[in-house]
Amino acid sequence: MIVCSLDRSIHDRKAFDCGEPALNAFLQTQAAKHQRQGFSRTFVLVDDGAASRILAFYSLTNCEIGRSSITEDDAKGLPLHPVPCVMMARLAVNRANQGESLGKWMLMDAIKRTALISQQTGVHAILVDAKDAKAKQFYERFGFKEVAENPMRLYLPLATALNAFQ
Question: Which segments constitute the N-acetyltransferase domain (predicted)?
Fold first, then answer.
């Protein structure tokens, strides 16, 4: 399996079905457009033998949150400015592949890519919007914490994420 940037000339977006119509529609109709416009980048997991079949995907974009949005412990020592983040805007696994730990695989890939981004620009945390309680629990298992104003928006300091890899 390999994770690569979405290429609408290669990857079969129409065949992807994660069971969530909004996520399917994003991949099928908006992801490539957002890439062309510079709003986000979508990464797909494909099988080496069937490179057109998308097993899972996620999107990354830049954002920031207020310093008051993170816990006091995480805010200690930070400047009094908005906190630069990379948002993993969407994460979905094809129904046929759910239960194979591909969501974890994609989250780890997103963290690795965010670490690379942080070598070029400031990134303090990774942000996600959990679509429901089950998704929230998924992210919390990896150490994500609630943003103060929105319990479904979660963050993970990049340093914490990278320490988990070691």
Answer: 76-146
